[in-house]
Design brief:
single chain, alpha/beta, Rossmann fold, 5-stranded parallel β-sheet, two-stranded parallel sheet, 11 strands
Amino acid sequence: MLSFLNNKRICVTGGAGFLGREVFRLLRAARAGAPFVPRSREFDLTTENGEARLYFEARSDVVIHLAAEVGGIGANERRPGRFFHANLAMGLHLIEGARRYGVEKFVQIGTVCSYPKLGEVPFREESLWSGFPEETNAPYGVAKRALAVMLEAYRREYGFRGIYLIPANLYGPNDNFDSDSSHVIAALIRRFTEAVDRGDDVVTCWGTGKASREFLYVDDAAEAIVKATGAYDESAALNIGTGREITIAELAGRIARLSGFHGRIEWDPSRPDGQPRRCLDSSRARDALNWTPRVDLELGLKRTIEWWRNVKPAQEVAAARC
């Protein structure tokens, strides 16, 4: 499945990030040529000039577009315009540039946020356009959804080989643990571990806890992306997930237990829950890629909490020096 990647020049946008570093590692293991990882301080991919400079320097055969501006519910509420523009502009310029520069294959990473707010669960790829996304992250979700249309249009008109992958909510070591922009698992891990360190008896969490999500460990997501880059070549979107759904209340309880927090969890219903339910039907990916996730949620949470426990003191020291 991975022979296509041998000695290819591969550009991985976002390759130094949370998901990107795992994709980078697997590409090297697959004997791909040294991946080119553009840094945002050098290439502003939201502009045509930044995209043109990237393709001139990278000379890529394959592009895996992982870079995104994204955050949790709070970040989406604060920056809907930026999230819409940055994510649409990056994809728009990169796909058009890939066509002009003769890139052999383009891999676009989508988002589960693109699915309709009240769609039938588990989400099947065919239902992507059956309704509007949940309001708090609709600008981000619609921007990503539009890129699926662009890839399909370019395939029809230009024979452009672009694929569109939709991963479930990701988590794992090296995730964003920033208190203002992190996603739910990182936010809860930080909240409960800090409560343990302070000796708090109560932790308050956003929403009602009734919403549900599906979570995919970052290593499993990276493996699916690399396999799809090497083997998948259809216009139809491909869901990448576990197919297992958990409520936020149950998730919070599990993280509390694994973090060593034995106090009370309270819920703040004045804060939004976001989409009521999210879970993907990933049967197409399992068949097309011969792929199944390896890390279950319990093990993945243990690894992530352990990583955060080890890295947090170093971050605090660095912050104190600033």
